[in-house]
Every structure is written in structure tokens, then in C-alpha cells.
Write a structure and sequence with these properties.
Blueprint (H helix, E strand, L loop, with lengths): L1 H11 L5 E8 L9 H17 L3 E8 L14 H4 L19 H15 L5 E4 H6 L4 H9 L1 H12 L11 E2 L10 E7 L2 E6 L13 E4 L6 E2 L2 H12 L6 E2 L8 H12 L9 E2 L2 E3 L14 H7 L2 H9 L7 E3 L5 H12 L7 H9 L7 H13 L22 H15 L16 H15 L3 H13 L7
Parallel strand pairs: 1-2, 2-3, 9-10, 11-12
Antiparallel strand pairs: 4-8, 5-6, 6-7
Helix pairs in contact: 1-2, 7-9, 8-9, 13-14, 15-16, 15-17
Length: about 450
């Protein structure tokens, strides 16, 4: 992958001997396949650095301290509406085991681990509660004026004069998405849990002082992004291109990192969206194919190949309908040569009730045939002569009679070891073409006759 070599070349120019590669995801619902792009790109960079003789670590973090700010269509709306605004780590799982964040994060993790990515996992809620962010929180709070200016200068976002870059957890209702901090004195924050702070949650109206440390609060995500780089010493962290646009989240985080926290921005890899049938996906709205759904229709190595073969700067638009999946397998086989049964041949053999050598490909071919294959690829061998075959022309019947005579002339190997006269598939194929030429029948009429008597269709596999 030439794009990977370019990144590794850039990183080697830094003369560093060790690197921390990071990526994060908010587990707000079923995680779409597009999130795998971040995992796999960072994983390839991490593994590439190791191959280059560098020390490297790949950390994947779940932002489970983020507020629940959307209701996916597939969850119980009545059950979860009162939870809106609470940290995801404090919302109960749909199955009653663990947190809401864990439920969706673990499902996603199973997918990327099956695909060969096994980063070190961290949970931001645990990191905050362990005090890992306390020092940087204090630095950010005393630099609130400067951070307000950064927001204004870079994105044109005007913050209230007393706004503090902190989200307290309300001691009364437990919500984090509805609080507004306005004073910082003696390591305490004065905050209000506002009823109209956001459109997606309602605060309880509580006002009071609280500590922002040891998990009492979290940073707004654009500020938090820079804070993570400071706390962990991140060297490489990319993100979707929507975050890397001019005046966007990345620019704000970079400015806070450089001007407030006095650190360098990590190496950025801005990658494009993964579209399914031309549509961008959303975890919270349940739009598009999830990572779990994709690994159910593609084997892990092929799914990983699908994502990594495209340069990060280009969007991936994959539609499982039609011939996309067989073509993907063909492309994969060309780049990974080996004794593999052709996906298309497996799909044909299944419908001819022939033995299939690859059980794995048989599994995915069955899925494709059932869910995505165009009608022209679906067929079944007829047990008796179809009614449609009775309308064959005299020319077509003569052609089929010639093939029948050729088949009858074949002689199997005898028990006495007599040499077989049975022709190979290629020989029989050549004989059929020879017969077609002798009878001066058109290719369309000739082969449609064969397809009709066997498949009750006028076209089919070779």
C-alpha cells in the first residue's frame, strides 16, 4: 500500500524511536462499518512502524464518558428518553448487562479483532475517574479566556463571557450534557443544570458548586481531543475528513494543543467516508451497514482488504447488491494469490449441486445468492424438460441432438483399465463450438437452447 509507505516515510523523518498511535470512538449505538476505516488505518501504521524497527503502541479509546445525545431507532424510546444527557457509561445496556456504551463497544470490538486488529483498549470514563485528566483540566480552566478566543478566531463560535470549557456531572440528576459551568474558584466549579441547555435533553434546574476532578466532569470534545494528546503523548492520530476541514474540530484542537497545552499536534491522517450504496452512515440513527452486518456478509480478511485498498483521501462506496461482492473476491484473489476456489465458481457449483472445496467461500456465496445476487445469477437445474423448451426451433433441436450424440459417444473407464474416451470440459466445449459452426446456428440460439433445457432460462453461467 503506497499510501502507508508515504505515512511511514513522513514519521521516520521525525527521528523518533517510539510512537503512540491512537484512535477513539463514541459508542452511542451500533457502530457502522465506516468506523473500521479508522481502526484499520491506524493499525496498519502501528504495524508498519514495528516492521521498520520502531517501538510502537496502538491505543483504541472508547469515549464512554460522552453524554447520550441521540436515540437510535432500534432502542426502546420510552426507556431511554429519560437517560438523554447522562454519560453513556451510566446508561444501562439494552440487555441489562453492563453499560449502554459497553454493549455497543464490545460488539464493534469483536469485529475489528476478528479482522486482525488488537489495540490496547481504554475507557475514557475510567481514565477521568482515575484522575488522569485532572492536571490538564485545571490548565484548561485557568486558560478559559484564551480557549474562548480560539473558538471565536478559528470557527467563529461565540461563547458566553463566563463560559467554561467543562461539562460537570449534575449531582442531582446525573446528567452531563445539560450543565453550564460559569465560575472556577478554589478548584470548584459553579454550574447550572439547565433545562434548555440542549435540544436533546432536559436539565433538572440544579445550581451549585462541585469538583471537576476524579470524574466529576469532562471536557468538551474539541478541547478533550487536545487534552488526550497531552495526557497520553500521542504521536499519530487521524480522523474523518469532516473533522479536518478548515475551521473544524481538528483546527480548534490543534490550536488548544499548541497555544494552551504547549505540545505539537500529532501526525494527522484525514480519511474519507465509507459509503454503502452512496449513503453516509450514522451510529445513532441506525442508518447504513454496521460493522457487524458487514462481517456477516464478508470474511474478515476480505472486509479488511476492502477498506485498506483505497487511499485514505478517497471515499469508499460499496454496494453489496449486484456483482460487487464477486468482483471484490476476484480483486482480493489477484492481490493474494493462492489455492482458492473462485467465488463465482463456488456460487455456480452450489446451484449445480456440485462439491465445493472451500467451506468458507461456500458460506459467503450462499449469503450472496440469497440476498444480493442479480436474477441472472440465480438458477436451478431442472428435473424434467421445461415447458419453454418445447418452443425450440428445428435448428436448435438439431444442435441439441448433435450434442446428445457426442455425449453418447463418450466411454467411461472400464474395470479392466480400458482407456477412457471421455472428453475433458475444454474438449467438449470446443466440440460444441465446432457443431455450432457446422450447423451455422447463431451463438445466441445455440447457447440459449442449452440453458433452456437445463435451467429454464435463456442465459446462465458458462
Amino acid at each position: 500500500m503506497f499510501w502507508l509507505e508515504k505515512i511511514l516515510k513522513d514519521l521516520q523523518k521525525t527521528k523518533k524511536s517510539s510512537f503512540l498511535v491512537s484512535d477513539y470512538k463514541t459508542p452511542s449505538g451500533k457502530i457502522h462499518v465506516g468506523a473500521l476505516r479508522g481502526v484499520f488505518i491506524h493499525d496498519e501504521v502501528y504495524k508498519g512502524l514495528i516492521k521498520k524497527g520502531k517501538k510502537a503502541e496502538f491505543v483504541y479509546g472508547y469515549d464512554d464518558f460522552d453524554p447520550m445525545d441521540g436515540l437510535p431507532v432500534y432502542v426502546d424510546q420510552k426507556k431511554y428518553l429519560p437517560e438523554m444527557g447522562k454519560p453513556l457509561c451510566e446508561v444501562k445496556s439494552p440487555n441489562g448487562k453492563g453499560s449502554y456504551a459497553e454493549y455497543f463497544a464490545r460488539d464493534f470490538q469483536e469485529v475489528f479483532e476478528a479482522c486482525g486488529s488488537r489495540p490496547k483498549i481504554i475507557w475514557l470514563s475510567k481514565e477521568y475517574r482515575a484522575g488522569r485528566f485532572d492536571e490538564v483540566i485545571k490548565k484548561i480552566l485557568v486558560s478559559a479566556d484564551q480557549i474562548r478566543e480560539i473558538y471565536q478566531e478559528i470557527s467563529g463560535s461565540s461563547k458566553e463571557k463566563d463560559w467554561l470549557p467543562i461539562s460537570m456531572i449534575c449531582e442531582k440528576c446525573g446528567k452531563i450534557g445539560t450543565t453550564y459551568g460559569s465560575k472556577f474558584e478554589n478548584d470548584k466549579i459553579f454550574y447550572e443544570c439547565r433545562k434548555d441547555m440542549v435540544e436533546w435533553a432536559v436539565g433538572c434546574g440544579f445550581k451549585g458548586w462541585g469538583s471537576p476532578y476524579k470524574g466529576g466532569a469532562k471536557l468538551p470534545w474539541k478541547v478533550e481531543w487536545a487534552a488526550k494528546w497531552k495526557v497520553y503523548g500521542t504521536d499519530v492520530e487521524g480522523a474523518g475528513k469532516d473533522h479536518s476541514t478548515a475551521g473544524g474540530a481538528r483546527d480548534i484542537a490543534k490550536a488548544i494543543a499548541v497555544e494552551v497545552l504547549k505540545i505539537k499536534e500529532p501526525y494527522n491522517i484525514a480519511y474519507e467516508f465509507f459509503l454503502v450504496g452512496g449513503k453516509k452512515m450514522s451510529s445513532s440513527k441506525g442508518v447504513g451497514a454496521t460493522a457487524r452486518e458487514m462481517i456477516e456478509i464478508l470474511p474478515p480478511e476480505v472486509l479488511r482488504y476492502l477498506i485498506l485498498r483505497t487511499v485514505p483521501e478517497r471515499a469508499i462506496n460499496f454496494d453489496p447488491e449486484g456483482e460487487s461482492i464477486p468482483q471484490l473476491f476476484d480483486d482480493y484473489d489477484k492481490e493474494h494469490p493462492g489455492a482458492k476456489a473462485s467465488f463465482r465458481q463456488v456460487a455456480f457449483s452450489l446451484q449445480l449441486n456440485q462439491k465445493v472445496e472451500s467451506k468458507e467461500r461456500e458460506k459467503y456465496a450462499k449469503i450472496w445468492l440469497k440476498r444480493f445476487a442479480p436474477e441472472r445469477y440465480i438458477f436451478s437445474v431442472q428435473e424434467k424438460l421445461p415447458e419453454s423448451a418445447k418452443n425450440l426451433s428445428a435448428e436448435q433441436k438439431k444442435f441439441l441432438s448433435g450434442i446428445l450424440e457426442e455425449v453418447k459417444s463418450q466411454k467411461p473407464v472400464s474395470s479392466q483399465g480400458e482407456r477412457s474416451k471421455v472428453k475433458s470440459g475444454d474438449e467438449l466445449h470446443a466440440k460444441i463450438h465446432e457443431l455450432k459452426e457446422d450447423l451455422k446456428i447463431s451463438p445466441r440460439d445455440a447457447f440459449s437452447a442449452i440453458y433452456l433445457i437445463f435451467l429454464n432460462k435463456d442465459s446462465g453461467p458458462q
